[in-house]
Amino acid sequence: MNRLKSVFISLYMTLLAAGIFYSAFRIAIEGPTTPWMGLAIASIVPGAFFMRLFLAPVARTSERLSWMPLMGFIAACIPATLAPNQPWALISALINGVLGPALYIRWYSRFGTRDNATLATGKRLPRFDLVDASGRRVTSKDLSKGTTLWLFFRGNWCPLCMAQIQEIAWDYQELAARGVRVCLISPQSEKNTQKLAKQFDVPMEFFTDPNNAAATALGILAKGGLPAGLQALGYDSDVPMPTALITRAGGEIIYSDLTENYRLRPEPQAFMAAIDAAGLGNVS
What we know:
This protein is of the alpha+beta class.
């Protein structure tokens, strides 16, 4: 299923780009009253949504995004009204503006139920190995000598992951005041991890999970979850589902967020609240 999703998201991005360029070409020739104006709007609306994810630090969106397919349906009314005998203008607008967003919102964004007894509050974090930004191998036990925030993210290519890390960086001083160690983990190459680490001037720690061994041990691996084509940029086809954990000294889990929708991420204040509720590193 993940591999099908991988193909879908890459194909949909391609269809949106093709829809924008082709409709622009037809509008340039036929004028603004062409039925292809519907395809233009149906492609630009979701295209602008995805562009915003990449250009602005957006760590989460609303769950339903019902406005997107609604706008697509309205856009599809243009060719249906202006040229009912040109079915391809209508069909392409419906695909880009209604079907595509509906699949993205209701199917692609969701992981399904993530029941994971291993990562339940009160459980001890399983042992696993990681590689730090300098190439040194460390264990989860080495990183569990105090309160630790563990964030498993998909990679530099994921805009919501990058925005979530940026939020943590903005609130790092509050976490540091509570004595929290911040560990950010992905399966991407050490080169990509080092590149990401250089973007932040706070001492968060970045780690590589070789062969997704840690994600597999924790039961958070999405096999084939990388959008098709990004393998060419050196990313692994298998990625972790976004996961946030907090452990006390010794590795007991006091907070676990296993989001079932990659667009819904916990805010840093949720981390602080969990740490304070557990009586760990309270600040006056």
